[in-house]
UniProtKB/TrEMBL annotation:
Protein name: DUF1206 domain-containing protein
Pfam families the record matches: DUF1206
Keyword Transmembrane helix: yes
Domain called DUF1206: residue spans: 31-96, 112-182, 207-276
Highest taxon above the source species: Bacteria
């Protein structure tokens, strides 16, 4: 274990989390559980794609659409929407005044990460609420292509799409750093857990973050290709990225590995919900 990681663990403060109140804390943890379930379903859909089984899009929209079709799906999505919004509020609070146990660049990075998490949770909440309203949402790939087409029609549209691609690639690099350095452990209070449990969280967290980094990296390259060719049809979301991975040399084997990584991240979300400090 790195000296830096041990230092972060020593600095995890005692007392309540950065959530603004116990209600937001509890609902936010529930939102993290929902986030984990979505990743497990995305992993399952990706496996179906790898084995050539016709299925829905292997992305958040596909996973949430699957939930909506179950017996208590709408009720579950209502709960998930509330939880996701609560976690977003929690992370926005942390971005403004949180992470007091670290300082300098480390605090800045963590607050920036909290802001990104809040945006991601609100985006996912908009998807879940769309299914609750009965209107659903456009698939991730369709939405990405439509948005890219709209931006390309603007002045300097290709430049803007190129900058968006660069931003996505930066996120992928940040996820890689988080996974390799295991900095996510610094946000968790695992002092009371057995060594085997702590190690398990490290493993699923590392594998999950790296799998997501790979998928985001491919999304960034697809958007970048759309900018270079000025062709919105080359853009795509998570489903397109996973299908692109399935068409590489390793083919379905690589897609199975990535699906396992998304499942690992789903499990990490459950541990995150139970032990998160910020």
């Amino acid at each position: 274990m790195s000296v830096r990681l041990r230092h972060l663990r020593r600095l995890v403060r005692e007392g309540p989390s950065d959530a603004p109140g116990r209600l937001v804390d509890g609902l936010g943890r529930m939102g993290l559980v929902g986030y984990g379930i979505v990743h497990l379903l995305v992993a399952w859909l990706a496996l179906q794609t790898a084995f050539g089984v016709p299925t829905g899009a292997a992305d958040a929209q596909g996973a949430i659409g699957f939930i909506a079709q179950t017996r208590f799906g709408i009720a579950a999505l209502i709960v998930a929407t509330v939880g996701l919004v609560a976690f977003a509020v929690w992370q926005l609070t942390a971005a403004l005044i949180g992470f007091r146990w670290v300082s300098g660049g480390e605090r800045t990075r963590k607050r920036a990460g909290a802001t990104a998490k809040a945006v991601a949770m609100l985006a996912l909440a908009s998807v879940t609420s769309g299914f609750v309203d009965g209107v659903g949402t456009r698939s991730g790939d369709g939405g990405a292509r439509a948005l890219t087409a709209d931006v390309l029609r603007l002045p300097f549209g290709r430049l803007l799409v190129g900058l968006a691609a660069l931003g996505i690639l930066v996120i992928a690099v940040a996820m890689t750093y988080t996974g390799v350095r295991r900095t996510f452990m610094g946000d968790l209070d695992v002092r009371e857990l057995a060594p085997a449990a702590r190690r398990s969280i490290e493993v699923v967290g590392t594998v999950g973050h790296l799998a997501r980094a790979l998928a985001f990296g491919v999304v960034g390259m697809l958007v970048g290709a759309a900018a270079v060719a000025s062709d919105p049809e080359r853009a795509g979301g998570l489903d397109a990225a996973l299908r692109a991975l399935g068409e590489t040399g390793p083919g379905s084997s690589l897609l199975v590995v990535v699906a396992a990584g998304f499942a690992a991240f789903g499990l990490f979300c459950f541990a995150d919900a139970a032990t998160r400090r910020a």
